[in-house]
Specification:
Layout lengths: L2 H8 L29 H18 L7 H41 L27 H13 L6 H7 L15 E8 L4 E8 L5 E8 L5 E6 L4 E3 L10 E11 L2 E3 L6 E5 L2
Antiparallel strand pairs: 1-2, 2-5, 3-4, 3-6, 6-7, 6-8
Helix pairs in contact: 2-3, 3-4
């Protein structure tokens, strides 16, 4: 018995190769923002509006001309892919099924010619963009939201306010506080959700002391790395937050959260 025959008899040739095994798809690291629609048709409209409005509001919000131009092209190229290109692909798809049927079970006296897909031309003034168009658009929007010139009217016209960003549904920030070991002592990590506001205004109280200003933070989390009031003595720290926008704390205070910090 030769090697090939032994492998056939042992069942090795019955095993599928890696080529035919299901391949895991890489997970996208992009988080779809709440203001971005879920339906493709609505996404096309959102991208078109963003591309039209960014040149109007971008300079006011501190976006340099080159970044405006690049982001507009990102939006227009994504719009083209989701709109014209995807529609053309879907219209072409039935012809591929027919071609497979003809090749496998059809009849004829001449060699079969497979159909060829021709992508629609890019709109005038639009160029192919690097991968990650939405990642870049969302990142730029996050920066624009921090601008002191951002208003509800501008955000609404740009289409970058979603239900998650609506302050009326979130009267106060949401946050958690957890003790963690730092380089020299325990610290407290404050993870917060600002719900479309520019940042949070944080106060803290220790022992029998009064509430004192701790920090203004625009990006979660915040690390409280203050040393203990009394060295080698555990202490209870209390925290509360309110929203912060355009240089002014506003809204109600959150409930107080307590954390015990050890040496």
């Amino acid at each position: 018995m030769n090697w090939d025959q032994s492998n056939w008899d042992s069942g090795l040739w019955d095993q599928p190769s890696d080529y035919f095994s299901p391949q895991s798809k890489p997970k996208s690291k992009m988080k779809r923002q709440d203001y971005y629609p879920s339906r493709i048709g609505d996404q096309v409209n959102w991208l078109a509006n963003y591309a039209a409005k960014l040149p109007i509001y971008g300079p006011t919000l501190g976006v340099v001309a080159g970044d405006v131009t690049a982001s507009v092209n990102d939006a227009k190229y994504a719009n083209y892919v989701l709109g014209l290109w995807l529609s053309a692909v879907r219209n072409f798809s039935p012809s591929t099924t027919d071609a497979v049927d003809d090749v496998l079970t059809g009849s004829g006296t001449t060699p079969f010619v497979l159909p060829t897909f021709t992508a629609p031309a890019l709109p005038a003034g639009v160029s192919a963009a690097l991968p990650g168009t939405l990642n870049r658009i969302f990142a730029l929007i996050a920066k624009m939201k921090l601008s002191s010139a951002m208003t509800d009217a501008i955000a609404t016209d740009l289409g970058i306010i979603g239900s998650e960003d609506d302050p009326s549904t979130h009267p106060v920030p949401k946050f958690t506080a957890e003790a963690e070991q730092g380089a020299t002592c325990q610290c407290v990590r404050l993870k917060f959700f600002k719900y479309g506001h520019m940042g949070v205004y944080i106060e803290s109280r220790r022992g029998t002391g009064a509430w004192e200003f701790l920090a203004i933070d625009t990006e979660s989390p915040y690390e409280d790395e203050r040393p203990l009031l009394v060295a080698a003595t555990p202490e209870v720290r209390e925290y509360r937050m309110r929203f912060w926008d355009k240089g002014t704390p506003n809204g109600d205070w959150t409930d107080v959260v307590k954390v015990t910090v050890s040496p």
